[in-house]
C-alpha cells in the first residue's frame, strides 16, 4: 500500500470522548500510520442543535493528551453547508432527489427495517400528495428504487443491503434545513480524498447508503473497516446517550486497554511512555487479529460488565 492512504477520525461534538470513541480513534490512527498514511480529524457537527460549544475543545485536547497527531487543519462540517448544497443540487438535477412533506407521525405505521429505522414507503416519490401540499417544511430524499449495494469490509467481510427493502428512499436534507449525516460524510470524504475509512461497526449499516451516494455523485468509494463497538454493563453501546464516562486523565493504561480490546499483539513489556506505546502499536498493528464481530463488552474499568459476566456476553 502506498502513501496515498488517507484516513480520518470524525467525532461528533456532543460530549467528551469515552472508551468507545478511543477504540475507533486508535484503530483508525494506527491503520493510517502503519501504512505511512495521512490521518485527519473532522468535527462532525452537521447536527448543530446537538453540538455542545465546549465539546470540540475537549475532544481535541483529549486527542492531544493521548498522543494522537493529526495532519492538516481540523475540518468542521458546520462550515461546509455550501458544499453539501451543491451536492444536493447535483442530485436534484439528475432526478435522484425529491421533496418530501412527510412527518415522523405520518411514518409511524411504516415497517421497521433491520437497522431499526422506519422504511420509507415512497409516499412523495411521484410528487407531494395534495393533502400534504400546504406543508412548508420539506425534506429531500434520494430515491433508491431496487438498488442492492454490496461491498467487502476489511474485517466484517462481505456485506449486502437491499436499499429498497431495508431502508427505502432516505433523507439527505432534513425538513429543518440541516443536511443529513449520510450526505455530509460522503461529500467530506470525497473532498478530503479519504481512501480508507476505519470506524465503529455501529455505522456498518449506513455504509451501503454512503456507497450509493458516492456512486450517484461520481465519487470514489473508500475501503471500509468497521471495528467492534464497546458495550456497557447493560449491553448497550458506550455513548454519550448511555452516559459513558469520559476518558481518565492518565492516557497510557487506557490506550493499552483499548489495544487489548481490539485483540492486538501484546507488547514484550508494558510501555513506559506514550511515544513508546505508539511506536509499538504502529509497528505491531494486525487488523486481521480483531474478531469479526460488531460488538464486544468493554473492560469493567470503562463501563463494561465484570470479568465473569463478560465471558458470557
How would you sum up this structure, described in words?
The protein has 313 residues and is of the alpha/beta class. It has two domains: 6-77 and 228-310, HUPs (Rossmann fold), CATH 3.40.50.620; 81-182, HUPs (Rossmann fold). Helices cover 29% and strands 17% of the residues. It contains nine helices and twelve strands. It has helices at residues 19-34, 55-65, 81-93, 163-166, 181-191, 207-217, 251-261, 274-284, 307-310; strands spanning 6-9, 38-43, 75-76, 97-100, 139-142, 148-153, 157-162, 170-173, 196-200, 223-227, 229-231, 295-297. The strands form five sheets. The protein has a three-stranded parallel β-sheet with strand order 1-2-3, covered by helices on one side. The longest helix has 16 residues, at 19-34. The radius of gyration is 20 Å and the shape is elongated. The model has no long low-confidence stretch (mean pLDDT 93).
